[in-house]
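Have a close read of this protein, sequence plus structure tokens, and explain what the tokens say about the fold. Thanks in advance:
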Amino acid sequence: MRVLVISHAHPAFSIGGAEVASHALFRGLGAMADTEAWYLARAARPLGRHETTPLASFRQGARESFLHADDYDHFWLSNRALGDLNGAFADYLRTVRPDVVHFHHVIGLGVEAIALARRVLPDAAIVLTFHEYLSICAHHGQMVKTRANRLCRRASPADCAACFPERTPAEFFRRERFLKDHFALVDGFVSPSRFLADRYGTWGIEPARFSVIENGLDTSSLARPRAQAKGARRARFGFFGQVTHFKGVHVLLDAITRIPESVWGEDAQLNIFGGNLETQPEAYQKALHALLERAGRRARLHGAYGSEDLPQLMAKIDWVVMPSVWWENAPVVIQEAFHHRRPLIVSDIGGMAEKVRDGVDGLYFRTGSAEDLADALVRALGEKTLWQRLAAAAPAPLDIAGAARLHRDLYQRLLAARRGGQGVGNPDAQDGGRHGDPPRPARERSRRLVHAA
């Protein structure tokens, strides 16, 4: 079986969970005796583009390539550079001739890449993994209201227009139809969490088309419990991730300042491992720096890290805190914490509540509540046997090889269905267009909607 994994970025240049997961799947598939795997990642500035082609290698693996694509409309998830898709991308697909094309995100590449893959490879199975709610929600895929940052539970054209008053409900309706027309060309969808799959089911994608498969984790390194004196507390807390409003670092910093000094003591500490604060709105940067100053010696901001650094950093802490104020999906940090047997303290919603069991392998607190998080931290500091009990119950995460096997089984089922005449797709969306072009209605709709935007 020949499998092409397509990602919106390469982990060598971007450390987000989706790109790490997609590359891990590529490696896992490539290690199988009966599978050949290729990896195509989108590239954009500051990575340069060749003068004559958008394809490049950037000195990665022999079967790892890049497609430069930065002419992208975020609202429509649409690639304006259709010439590059019809040309270089189509030629690449014909050269590799995969049996399966597995997209992880369409950011930068656009949903038109799905239509092009279906046109060029009519017999291939097309798979799409969703890593967040970007197709449902134009607010960075977070499903959080733009006003007051309230959680959104169900999208509709009217509700979405209320978040973005510069756009009409009709535009959001057309956006939804545009995306669903392209998703009709996909044979199967993958979600790393049941929560995310259910959200897409509510949005209108048939639940039967979803497979819930966790991302595979590299389990080759293990951080032992932090060495400490006999009787000492497990009092080191760690945050891992991007320092953004949605990740809730401000809630965590607020929480630790609410804990009395008699409880916090000299041994407790919060270590924040994460970057991108400098790219956040100025108001948020100022607010976070003020909270850091207020926290004083209790908190340290260490900056960005690479995935290869995580075991070493995990060895420095006892507890992992996830204070996200959005739903999340299947954060790799949860899998990492379980692998290294570090109990979690998480917001009580979405993929976090699905993956972590309150009082079994972690603790919940009410989302966005610094007071409730402070209570959870106090409990972690005060209950002597809590850490050991929660750490012992941590489940073993799915490893790279296991995830690859589950995906290969899915591919085989989808290929059998497609070759047996049960393949999915919108027949109208596949008519017309010269060889190598995206389907005509999708192509024309792309141009019309991008122009309208």
